[in-house]
Protein: Transcriptional regulator, MarR family with acetyltransferase activity
Organism: Albimonas donghaensis
Amino acid sequence: MPQDHAPETPPADPPPADPGDIARLRRFNRAATSAAGVLDASFLGRGRPLGESRMLHALGPDGDEVGAARARLGLDSGLASRLLRSLEAEGLIETVRHPEDGRRRIARPTARGRAEFAAYERLSDAHASATIARFGRAAPDLLAAMDRLACALGADRIALRVADPESPEAKACMAAYYAELDRRFASGFDVDSSGDPEAASMRAPRGAFLLAEFDGAAIGCAGLAGPEAAPSEGGDGEQDAGRTGEIKRVWIAPQARGLGLSRRLMSLAEDVARGLGMTRLRLDTNGALTEAAALYRRMGWREIERYNDNPYAELFFDKPL
Amino acid sequence: MPQDHAPETPPADPPPADPGDIARLRRFNRAATSAAGVLDASFLGRGRPLGESRMLHALGPDGDEVGAARARLGLDSGLASRLLRSLEAEGLIETVRHPEDGRRRIARPTARGRAEFAAYERLSDAHASATIARFGRAAPDLLAAMDRLACALGADRIALRVADPESPEAKACMAAYYAELDRRFASGFDVDSSGDPEAASMRAPRGAFLLAEFDGAAIGCAGLAGPEAAPSEGGDGEQDAGRTGEIKRVWIAPQARGLGLSRRLMSLAEDVARGLGMTRLRLDTNGALTEAAALYRRMGWREIERYNDNPYAELFFDKPL
DNA sequence: CGGACCATCTGACTTAAGTCAGAAACTATT
DNA sequence: AATAGTTTCTGACTTAAGTCAGATGGTCCG
């Protein structure tokens, strides 16, 4: 069961963009580059070379293996070692051998190191706070623009994973999903009347709940609900209800839309369904969610007859796996 | 007549921002910082150290004084000189003495240097084009977010200047202004019926046209229209029409709103009006432009009786200087 | 046990970037 | 004409960052 799907590859030869748009993007680049130093100046201002600060930050408050931190920063082993020695000389970290493999070493911040780490965090928070204050009344709007760009610029770091449908992240996504349906449906939306699949149906071994995360923030989800009895192994031929799953609660945060994320989520959901022995998937949706229906059609779903009494559902699709 | 006004100073002690907002901003910072290298990678990829590339870029295709380029990059004179020597050794620039001051020197790209400069530009454009292509159908939305953030991040580099009301930049601003009025007024907007002041009235010595620019792009304007006869010098006491100016065509690009720019423009317009000997300003506006009317009141304008037959005007203000 | 393999470390070296003091060439001022 | 002040340049030095070739001490497997 793959835990992630590569983002869609762009078309082979991109046509040159509009010169005006190029100028706009380059203007942003200049502004962002000249702001970049200011943006995360937390590494500076504590009288330590950038490399050492980055290493301390890469180790995290609980420490990590030397090799892992080195790989994360993309450093040469010699350089990494030297940075660790300086941090050690300053009394900020201590290194111990790995309990299971004497070759590997673990670098862990000391109390002083953790204090220093916290100081970086405070500096960074204070800096962010000051920036937001400077934005004044434009702040909500600018933060929304930042969310949007952060997702787009880091689209290849959006990771998909299986999560528990009752985890806080999953619940937050679903709450955002319900709130959006309530806004978009002319008649509003009430969860209770829509036949919400219980959490157990979206948990192994029956199904799964998929979460898309970017830099620690949940920005999308998809539920795969399986039937009550686990499908029997090996019995093929008949296409019974025991081998049909249902896709529910597909939601993408506004700032992550248009980046091909729902396609990645749906595609992973199909893989997971196949891994659970399902042979067919179905789903219902509302006519107001036009983008969703268009995507389903593009991904090979066929429109079928109504299969439930969900009052909000108007369109029904299925797809053989 | 000051050419620029400092941006408004933020309130003394900013209260700490919402932790969620801090996290959002820091997420953007991380994304932008890690994208920053990629964002303007044009300096790399041509086998030259960053410093030399930056210097070549700072000189521009037509060359410049050594001191000017050095100040722009904020470099030590020794370092700057050494960078120039390496560029000279590579045959990319040549230096000549300043025609009027033998101490100063002018560094000018050679044909090869200009070709190199153009290569950087092409690389940068190609990179921007590829980024836009990667954005796919989300591009228009993302570019708008970039415009918004570029203005906000570089707000202190938004410069005001006096421009000709018939320059292309001024015309572009006014066209955008008219288009917006047409969208916002229930009845639409037609320039011809609104008593457009002729260009001559917004040009010295009668008046002025003010333009706000960010990184070469016009993002706002304000017209100061003076009466036909230049005000007579010295004759004080009476407050005749010959000493009353009118503010027209105040417009701020959507991406630059909420940054205190209209206040800066209006304040400069008042200074310019005083410099032209005006003792009173007046303006008309529409009730649909609620933000505008609120700003006028905050800046000390008083509502007065209708003074023209502009069918779009509903509110009238004046301000003694 | 020996050898292949591995993670980490050390020492020697390179490059980019920048600082600082002062020299050289020039202009402006008294 | 002497002097003070510019602008640019040169040489000597420093620091940060990174590369590379082994050395060291460990694991794993036949």
The radius of gyration of chain A is 24 Å. Confidence is low (pLDDT under 50) at residues 1-12, 234-239 of chain A. Chain A is about 40% helix and 15% strand.
